[in-house]
Write a structure and sequence with these properties.
By secondary structure, this protein is of the alpha+beta class. Helix content is 33%, strand content 34%. Helix 3 runs antiparallel to helix 4.
Length: 406
């Protein structure tokens, strides 16, 4: 019985030296492979996941137009067209518009009537005041006639007194009456003068109802309509701008002002007409520094005709070493994209344009090298902001944040 129990216990003992089944080894290898694949997936997927969940930071550069005069450019600055003479035209007193004599875009001359306000009440007041003049004048004439008659009676009575025919008291009474009539005449004449002054005041107020142009200029924007209420603290009738007085106002860094002087030549390019250039010259430097921006406002006047140029247009000014000659002025400018912004996607040359916090991939056709860029034959316009050195994982439509380009 004891031997049987020993045999049974021996049969339950594990033999650790016996070879393991092949299926257990394969399971271990399978687990190792799964863990390795997972690690590799995590390693490669995390950057992609981060790129999709977080906005990558990109550096930005710009597509710009290079002038044939680029070699003589000392400084480039951006600004806006500003009319040096303009006027918000309105009446001296508040009133409602009865007639509008101008329209948007029309040129007007100094003193030209541009609007008439409701004035019936003022005309009625003037008519009433003129009636008062007539009434006061009639009273004055009556008083003068009474005075003349009294003077005749007084003279006659005084003669009778001298002859002893009449009593002196009667002459004294007539003298007092004459003095009273004289005062009545003076009072009536004062009433006439007051009525005439009132008419003049009312006429001035009536004249205020006719609004005239204070300057030669062009009507900018839509004028006030018939029935509109205009006047001080209410609103203007129209804005007039003297287009002959337009200049470019641009902020130049304080540390670069020493490069400029009055009368220095410039080249002007407007965003509205990117393929056209104007000659200009520095008209004014200063007269004060903006401490917050550390800039000085420089005014540049046009030398060439300014047909089509309007206030508030954006402009770029190239301050030059020498004046533009006719040949250089007529030479075609080139739109240039920086080399650092150009990359390849699916075998095509592309750039990534910044558009409201997203990047838009745009195919470009390049020309010859120009300095540190390429001439852009087809692609985004001048001034477009593009990603510099775009990373390989950057895709069309991605949200991005702009880095500090300093």
């Amino acid at each position: 019985m004891a031997d049987q129990l020993s045999n049974d216990l021996a049969s339950l003992k594990l033999n650790r030296d016996a070879p393991q089944p092949a299926s257990g080894l394969w399971k271990k290898l399978l687990w190792v492979g799964v863990l390795g694949a997972t690690a590799a997936g995590v390693y490669f997927a995390i950057p992609q996941l981060e790129a999709r969940l977080f906005k990558p930071e990109v550096q930005v550069t710009e597509i710009m137009t290079l002038s044939p005069a680029q070699a003589s450019v000392k400084l480039t600055s951006s600004g806006y067209i500003v009319a040096q003479e303009s006027s918000e035209v309105g009446p001296v007193v508040a009133g409602r518009v009865k007639e509008i004599k101008i329209k948007e875009g029309e040129q007007v001359q100094l003193g030209q009537v541009i609007a008439i306000l409701e004035n019936a009440d003022r005309k009625a007041a003037i008519s009433a005041a003129r009636s008062q003049i007539a009434t006061a004048g009639a009273r004055a004439e009556v008083a003068k006639a009474d005075l003349a008659a009294a003077k005749i009676k007084l003279a006659r009575e005084q003669a009778l007194v001298k002859e002893g025919i009449s009593a002196p008291a009667v002459a004294d009474d007539l003298a007092a009456q004459t003095r009273a009539l004289q005062k009545q005449v003076e009072a009536s004449e004062s009433q006439v003068k007051a009525a005439r002054s009132e008419v003049k005041n009312l006429q001035v107020n009536l004249d205020y109802m006719t609004v005239t142009a204070p300057i030669n200029g062009t009507v900018i924007g839509k004028p006030a309509g018939v029935g509109a209420m205009v006047g001080p603290f209410v609103g203007a009738i129209a804005k007039l701008v003297d287009l002959d007085s337009i200049m470019i106002e641009t902020d130049v860094p304080e540390g670069r002002v020493h490069l400029l002087e009055r009368g220095a030549p410039t080249e002007i390019v407007l965003d509205a007409f990117p393929n056209k250039r104007w000659r200009g010259e520095v008209a004014q430097i200063g007269p004060r520094v903006d401490r917050a921006k550390a800039t000085v406002t420089v005014k540049v006047r046009f030398v060439d005709k300014t047909d089509g140029v309007l206030p508030e247009m954006a402009a770029r000014v190239n301050f030059l070493e020498k004046k533009l000659d006719e040949a250089t002025l007529k030479a075609k400018a080139k739109v240039v994209v920086p080399k650092s912004a150009v990359t390849e996607r699916s075998g095509a040359k592309v750039v990534f344009v910044i558009d409201n916090g997203k990047v838009r991939m745009r195919t470009v056709r390049l020309g010859e090298e120009v300095g540190t860029g390429f001439e852009l034959l087809e692609g985004p316009p001048d001034g477009a902001r593009v990603v510099r050195d775009p990373p390989p994982e950057l895709e069309d439509g991605r949200d991005v944040k702009e880095g500090n380009n300093s």
